[in-house]
Amino acid sequence: MKIPSATYRLQFNRNFGFKKAGEILDYLASIGVSTIYASPVFKARPGSTHGYDITDPNMINPELGTKEELYDLILNAGRNGIDWLQDIVPNHQAFSGDNYIVSDILENGRNSKYFNFLDINLDHPYIKGRLLIPFLGKLFGETLENGEISLNYDARGFYIKYYEHEFPLRIESYNTILTKGLKPVADEPVSEESDFIQLLGIIHILKNLPAGEEMDERYEQIGVVKKLLWELYSNKETIRKYIDEAVAGFNGEKGEPGSFKLLDNLLSEQNFRLSFWKVSGEEINYRRFFNINELICIKVENDDVFDHTHQLVFELLEQENICGIRIDHIDGLYDPSNYLKKVRKKAGDKYIAVEKILEHWEQIPDEWPVQGTTGYDFLNFVNGLYCLSESREKLTRTYNSFIRSKMSYGDLLYEKKKMIIEKHLTGDIDNLAHLLKQVSARDRYGSDITLNGLRKTLIEIASVFPVYRTYINSRDLSTQDSRHIKDAVNETRRRNPDLAYEINFLEKFLLFEFFEHVPEEERKGWIDFVMRFQQLTGPLMAKGFEDTTLYIYNRLISLNEVGGDPDKFGVSAREFHEFNKTRADSFPHTINATSTHDTKRGEDIRARINVLSEIPDEWGRKLKLWAKKNRAKKIKSGGINVPDRNDEYFLYQSMVGGFPFYKSDYKVFTQRLKEYVVKAVREAKVHTAWLQPDKDYENGFLVFIDRIMKQINNDFFDDFISFQKKISYYGVFNSLSQTLLKMTSPGLPDFYQGTELWDLYFVDPDNRRPVDFDKRRKLINEIKKYEISGNIKNYLGDIISSVHDGRIKFYLTHKSLEFRRINKDLYDKGDYTVLKSMGQYNTSLIAFSRSMGNNTAVTVVPRFISGIVDVGEMPLDGIWENTSVDIPESISGSYRNVLTDERIKLGGSSLAVDMLKNFPVALLVKEN
User: 179 and 237 share a domain?
Assistant: First the structure.
């Protein structure tokens, strides 16, 4: 297996395709990247900025380039010593007429050769026989009579159009349209040469289309019909006029409701039902990606679906320089374990990482044949290392005092998950309850439990489920899965004693108790329910936790991250080392991330905000002062001052974290901040929301930002800038430390595009802005020039004295990547040993060694330095007093600092002042 040394995430889109990626290969190679980690490259909806809304998994996205250009890019990457890790999307596709699978099912219904590809239920009790399309902005009747839905015809055939959406008609409906005006024509003499004779022949074929097992013949005849009809339309004026008039007759006239009867009747014949988007919250007959109506899930658990949708994936894996794949949203799959086994069988010895959000100390199932996850677990452990745990109570009091309320994180999460179910996932829960009722009705213990009782209990258990999902796919339960289910059931029992009977029954159901008494057929239904329940808890956690709670519970928003736990205030050095040792033993090649395309804020914003935990008293005083100075800058909306206290608290932290180093960037930052807070308050769903935006609240918030960001005659702004510069200064050293820890801890370091310089971006789409690779290319050339000249010491002095420009992070990244690539085996296989810190500032140093044979490297990084150095003072040499690191005799000897090229003797109690003499962090390699 070819294991990456370090990955670099590239976000492909129409403005950054294969040709532009080819232009930066030499740059990526020069900084030390071993592997491009590519966002999805498969055909997606036009204009997609992320590539996860796939319309054809077996085509390359033409907006990025051609298949040949992709293969040339991969080949040229290999020539530069760079491999390729490809992101794939097995769970869902775009619900769009552009998607040939969706289109074919809409046209052919149960006769479609792709009918079993989509996770749909045409036997749904309320939407029987038709696939719901909940895309309308208003009620169906209103939308229809406004003329927003229309019948159209072109070379593809007849289709319904609603703004950018186009959906093909059921092929049998062609008769309804084509025969609409035929009676008057039939009353006239028709010669054998008449154009209408040919049209009547087409109608005859349509009336006798085969179905069922004669699928190939059916598709052949449909192809003939479409071709003949288009030729007639294109070449015969009489037929063109006839069809155009027929289409116009169906479309009706706005202001005349009765004129839409024909189109209404035609729509009622279709294999789909257009509806108001809100319908999907309560009634839906397809599985979505989270609650996104425009992303429909596929049944990749079926072998034919798996084989069909992975043709190009496995073709790509045959390319020499493609080392592996990253699998998106593994939790969405019906049976992740079985899926991964099938992928492994096809992929052979290729590297496989899965996007899996792990709760604190949760482990991925042992049976998964993968190298690890995409690294959110590492992100949260290393981030927590820079949050001072001792400040928990002070910051909690400060937060509660500022918002004038005591907010319980646990209760908030429970409430928001329930809210997501009630507003967005009721239909999904309802489907699950019906499935459970069908299965339980045959059980002597469950036959008396009502559908409503089952529904209520499912909602309660799902709302307190402690992890994204469990992975039950057979009678056997893992200890971890069993514990998670029991925890959820016990918490549900505590909150809802009146549901005791239903809870007890559902507990036995979820834990497969009394399974041996169940007949085989009922057992299958039992398993199916449990596996579908597992598919629900993941989206619920994502929407209730990631996209709601994380925007409301604002005590310290650096902890509000994907896979994080805002209630866990900090990570001790011991916990961090234990986490690293566990990874070294179990998944040494898993990914270490600090920023991704999905993180809630950039890694260096988090590093800054964490500094607040070191100065809780000063932070509290600043909040009181700023709130007082800015009180008059708020406006009233809906009876409240905008922003409310909680959103104001969120805003100040966001400003502290994201504010630019340079004054020339203030204007751009203000605009970015305004776009960000609109997204944040909509995600919070307290005063406004994506689906029902409150423009008054949002605009009031934007006015507030404009007022507090005025740079002239603004006491708040002057005081804020002074405080923010202090925070950003200390944040620099947090950032450098976490960068080196990412590089040298067990696992593979991943760099999200552009983060080799300061990453001061907010959540997407802010973090998808174009990267200035020309600037970065100049920086690497600058370093090379100094190295060649032998003046690297002068360069270090320069970048240390001007940390704001980011060159210090760039230099650290480059030197660490370069060292890691040369010493790949050391970090792939080396032992991890904790090195104990001693002396006055022992809690402010993290140190460990990686060893393999005679090769040893030592990492030493600082933390919590705001109480050690003043702003402008470097955490170097003299400030460390008697602080030391205990170096075992087994690794004692002469070392070279990779970052400064200095030599140092290590052994016994080795002083930090010697290790951190000329650079804020140390990477020391033993010289043999």
Answer: yes
Give the pLDDT mean for 257-268.
95
> Following CA atoms 532, 535, 536, 539 in sequence, which dihedral angle do they give, to the nearest 10 degrees?
-170
Give the DSSP letter of residue 542.
I
Peptide bond before residue 643 is cis, with ω within 30 degrees of 0:
yes
Largest Cα–Cα separation, the chain:
110
pLDDT tens-digit map of 779-809: 999 999 999 988 899 999 999 999 999 999 9
Confidence of residue 167 (pLDDT cuts 50, 70, 90): very high
pTM (whole model) above 0.85 = yes
Tally Cβ neighbours within 10 Å of residue 710. 12
DSSP 3-state assignment of 218? helix
Q: What is the CATH number of the domain that holds 356?
A: 3.20.20.80
Nearest to 290 by CA among 412, 425, 132, 90: 425
CA 658 – CA 627 distance, rounded (Å): 19
Q: Are 844 and 910 found together in one domain?
A: yes
Give residue 872's identity as a one-letter amino acid code: G
3 state DSSP class of 159:
strand
How far is 452 from 448, CA to CA, in rounded Å?
11
**Can you tell me the distance from the alpha carbon of 372 to that of 344, in angstroms, rounded to the nearest whole number?**
13
Spatial distance between the Cα atoms of 660 and 806, rounded to a whole number of angstroms: 11
Instruction: Single out the residue of 717, 738, 518 nearest to residue 611, CA to CA.
Output: 738
User: Domain tally for the chain?
Assistant: 6
Determine the Cα–Cα distance for residues 105 and 119; give it in Å rounded to an integer: 12
Token pair listed for 290? 């989270």
CA-angle at 294, arms to 593 and 70, nearest 5°: 55
Apex CA 744: angle with CA 740 and CA 748, to 5°? 110
Residue 720, domain member (yes or no): yes
**Where does the pLDDT of residue 685 fall: very low under 50, low under 70, confident under 90, or very high at 90 and above?**
very high
The angle subtended at Cα 541 by Cα 535 and Cα 545, nearest 5°, is: 165
Residues in Cβ contact with 382 at an 8 Å cutoff, skipping those fewer than 6 apart: 571, 576, 592, 594, 738, 741, 742, 745
Both tokens assigned to 670: 């203000």
SS3 490: helix
Under a CB-based contact definition with an 8 Å cutoff, are residues 324 and 369 in contact?
Answer: no
Query: On the CB side of 782, how many CA atoms lie within 13 Å of its CA?
Result: 15
Cβ distance 232 to 239 under 8 Å?
Answer: yes
Residues 636, 704: one domain?
A: yes
- Cα 587 to its chain centre, rounded Å, is 22
Q: How many CB atoms lie within 10 A of CB 380?
A: 25
Structural domain boundaries, residue 454: 408-535
Which is it for strands 288-289 and 83-88: parallel, antiparallel or unpaired? unpaired
710 and 581, same structural domain? yes
For 43, the enclosing helix (H) or strand (E) is strand 42-44
Q: Which of 333, 341, 438, 256 is nearest to 90 (CA)?
A: 333
Residues 602 and 682 in one domain: yes
